[in-house]
Write a structure and sequence with these properties.
Elements lengths: L15 H10 L5 H15 L26 E5 L5 E7 L11 E6 L6 H11 L10 E3 L5 E3 L2 H14 L8 H13 L4 H7 L18 H5 L7
Antiparallel strand pairs: 1-2, 2-3, 4-5
Helix pairs in contact: 2-3, 2-5
Length: 221
């Protein structure tokens, strides 16, 4: 029902296989690629809009609206598991002046916390510098421009035989992955900061795990 009211075509989801391809190709010792991997992993696992991890142009960075290095907190939960909290100064679904939190947890092989740790190592920066940044040939810290990041990502995905991805593909892909594995939809809605049932339109790529949930049923009869 909600899909019928959409004005834009449904965006394709980023899948786990695509994430693995990105990590395999990107040079995580290079500041530009390290930044892209941190953006991709945070956008996927945090179900973030790509505009929340990038800027429209170099001059568009605004510390009052965009994530800075000091807007990230690492901690441990009650189960002694490490997590990261990103404090979005300005989010689409937040009230004016309200900080929205994105929580990231450890993930085997494609860990967003490791990606953030690597970014801090490869791109040292001050607390008020952009969180997702890289260093140019002059050593200047620069925010990652969305179009440049998507261009690099699509070059890799195309080389592996996949079609074009969009910024929103990461948010869709993360939600699809969690929902297809049976994660409580309310947890997905809260983690992705959806105010309504709109997240239901993000149940994609179920064919990737359909056998896990619906296969081999005759063995139970």
């Amino acid at each position: 029902m909600q899909g019928a009211t959409r004005k834009r075509p449904m965006r394709p989801p980023i899948t786990i296989e695509m994430m693995r391809a990105l990590k395999a190709v990107l040079n995580l010792d290079d500041s530009f690629d390290a930044c892209i991997w941190a953006e991709a992993s945070c956008a996927f696992w945090g179900m973030m809009r790509f505009g929340e991890v990038s800027v429209s142009s170099r001059d568009a960075f605004n510390g009052a609206k965009h994530l800075k290095r000091k807007d990230i907190l690492f901690g441990y939960d009650r189960n002694h598991k490490r997590y990261a909290r990103l404090d979005l100064p300005d989010a689409k679904t937040a009230k004016r002046g309200e900080i929205q939190h994105v929580f990231l947890t450890e993930q085997e092989g494609l860990c967003p916390l490791e990606a953030l740790d690597n970014l801090r190592r490869v791109v040292p920066a001050g607390p008020d510098d952009p969180l997702f940044s890289w260093r140019d040939t002059h050593g200047d810290v620069r925010p990652m421009v969305k179009s440049k990041a998507i261009e690099r990502i699509n070059a890799i995905l195309s080389a592996w035989g996949w079609g074009t991805a969009f910024g929103h593909s990461f948010r869709i892909g993360g939600a699809s992955f969690f929902l297809s594995l049976g994660i409580n939809p309310e947890i997905v809605r809260l983690a992705g900061s959806w105010r309504s049932m709109a997240y239901e339109t993000y149940i994609r790529a179920f064919e990737q795990v359909v056998s896990l949930h619906m296969g081999g049923l005759m063995a139970r009869v």
